[in-house]
Amino acid sequence: MIAVKIIHYPNLKTVIAVEEVLKNSKEALSREEIKRRLETRIMHQTLNVAISYLVERNLVTDNEFGVRWKRK
Predict the structure, then answer these.
(1) Cα dist. 62→28, 40, 52 in Å?
(2) Is residue 2 part of a domain?
(3) What is the C-alpha to C-alpha distance for residues 27 and 5, in angstroms, rounded to an integer?
C-alpha cells in the first residue's frame, strides 16, 4: 500500500456540506459535480478525504458511477 501524505484535512463544516450535497442528490455524482454544488471552494484532495470518511462510516458508496448517498 502506498502511503499518501495528506496536506489538507476537511473540517467538520466541510464534511457536513459534502454530506448534504450527497443526501440531496437523486443520482451518483462525480467529484467535480460535488465541488460545483458546494457553496465554498474545496481542494480535490480535501474532498477525497471527506468522501473516504463517509465511505468508512458506511454512509456513501463510491464506485465507477460516482459517489452516492446510501438510502435507508
Answers:
(1) 9, 22, 9
(2) no
(3) 31
In a domain, 34, yes or no: yes
Q: pLDDT digit string (tens) for 13-33? A: 999 999 999 999 999 999 999
The total of structural domains in the chain comes to 1
Reference 64, options 40, 39, 31; nearest CA is 31
Task: Return the CATH number at 34.
Answer: 1.10.10.10
Distance from C-alpha of 24 to C-alpha of 7, rounded to nearest angstrom = 29
Residue 72 has pLDDT above 70, yes or no: no
The answer to whether position 4 is within a domain reads: no
Q: How far apart are the first and last CA of the chain?
A: 33
User: Pick the residue with more confidence: 2 or 45?
Assistant: 45
